[in-house]
Amino acid sequence: MRKSHPIRRVVLATAATVSGVVLLLSLKPASDPAAASAAGAGPQQTAAGQESPQGGAQAPAGSGTVTGDAVQTQYGAVQVRLTVKDGKITKAEAVQAPKGGLSDQKTQLAVPRLNQEAVAAGTADIDAVSGATYTSTGYRKSLQSALDRMKSAAPSGTSGAGSAGGGSGSTGGGSGSSGAAQARTVTGKAAQTQYGAVQVRITVRDGKITKAEAVRAPEGGLSSQKTQLAVPRLNQEAVAAGTADIDAVSGATYTSTGYKQSLQSALDQAGG
């Protein structure tokens, strides 16, 4: 009778229930780490997948900024910095240049023109600016060192910068056969003015003037000041207009007239 007592049954049932709960609780921690591991695997893989694009988002080969050596001249140091994209110079600037007194004037005259020529030529084979020989020489040396660094930094498979630095250097001599060989340099006839001769040289590519410069212009005394004032503006206008129909610079009428005449003769020779 005692074995089948109702209280005994309740106690046994309760004990069986508690044992089942304990068993379930003991099994649950064993499965949680696996679940946690599986859940954590997704974010870790995602993070790893994001690292790769970040590494690949760096500047492409042959792009960036490179600074040449500081070159000492008689009037101070000249140092050139280049901005390069896809192996081509997109910007050139002198981070150091002679300063003080007359050097300031020569730097203001020469550096902007040298910067333009460096971008246009893609090499250090650029013309010296008249009246700023030392600055021009220092600029070209620093420019060449920057080009050398650009070339050595470019991977062997993508030597676009090297081609620009070395290949088109032969073009500077006028007889290169690289990509820059499409450009032609033509010098107009010297036009005589009351204060001296004016002679213009232009670079033409695909029928357009890409560069204009006065290889001869009045010099001495007031004429030098007028030349420094007028010629850079005339050069810019010639490139912008693509013709000899450009405005005279106020205060330099004779120089402007001679410039336009020589420019027109250069255009005639170029077939423009």
Question: How would you describe the overall organization of this protein?
Answer:
By secondary structure, the chain is of the alpha+beta class. The protein has seven helices and eight strands; from the N terminus they run αββββααααββββαα. The protein has helices at residues 6-56, 102-121, 133-153, 160-167, 169-172, 222-241, 253-270, and strands at 64-67, 71-73, 76-85, 88-96, 184-187, 191-193, 196-205, 208-216. Helix 2 (102-121) runs parallel beside helix 3 (133-153).
SS element count, helices = 7
**What's the overall average pLDDT, rounded?**
75
Apparent shape: elongated
* Sheet/helix structural class: alpha+beta
Helix content: 40-55%
Q: Give the C-alpha Rg.
A: 37 Å
